[in-house]
Amino acid sequence: MNPVIRPRSLFIALSLLLALALWLSLALGPVSLPLLDTLKAALRLLGLAQAGYDLAQAELILGQIRLPRTLLGLLVGAVLALCGVAMQGLFRNPLADPGLIGVSSGAALGAALAIVGGAALGGLPQAFAPYLLSLCAFIGGLGVTALVYRLGRRDGETSVTTMLLAGIALNALAFACIGLFTYLADDATLRTLTFWNLGSLNGASYARLWPLLLVTAAVALWLPRRAKALNALLLGESEARHLGFAVERIKAELVFCTALGVGAAVAAAGMIGFIGLVVPHLVRLLAPAELPIGIVTALIGAPFFLYLLLRGRT
Fold it and tell me: Is residue 251 situated within a structural domain?
């Protein structure tokens, strides 16, 4: 355990940095707000404080625009980072990201079908358009992931290599279909497709936050309970079995967890990459390192053995 950086101190420091980042995200923008006014308006929106003077403009900007976007960015980043850890542990590859099993491309394909299909039918109803688009994206992500998992199953076992190759192939196929829809789309539909594929927080709303919040909470509660299993998988599937872990069940749970989390994130904010790949590496730099037992025994035993040799000569 690193004596300089304690886990509790590190957690407190990162929590304070997160709170500061959220505060600055609410204050900065095309219309800059004073930091104190931002804090008062946010507390007043939450019903935790009474402002001493009129903050109607700040409350309007925060309540309708910045607060939903900030919370959406927070939840999307958290769930993508958690799913990135799961995929890197499952594939035993530090370059693995949550979209490797096709969930991101499948969600984008589902959204593209909804956008192009809605335009072909004369447009989606305004009251149901955001929810229908997110639902199609979520179903598309789960569907492609289920297909990848099914292709990787054989004789009651799941081949990680086959899943990886199937995910790459289905990713290419999904993006080819999206490219075809983009080529056939008119100007208005093309604009919507482009914004969705690039990822955006502009469509954030409190109605979209609740499903993503529930999914993020479920992933955040479940994944740490599989930390020992992920560490065992890094040694290899045979070693994990010898340690007593149900490898096939754990792999199925990791795939389902990733599909659920990434599907919900893409359904809420579109395709946002790089987070699930980089954040796990940054966290590992802060995590304490464990010395192998051989180093400890050598440091203690070697001097004692030399002492015995010298004593025997005398």
Answer: yes
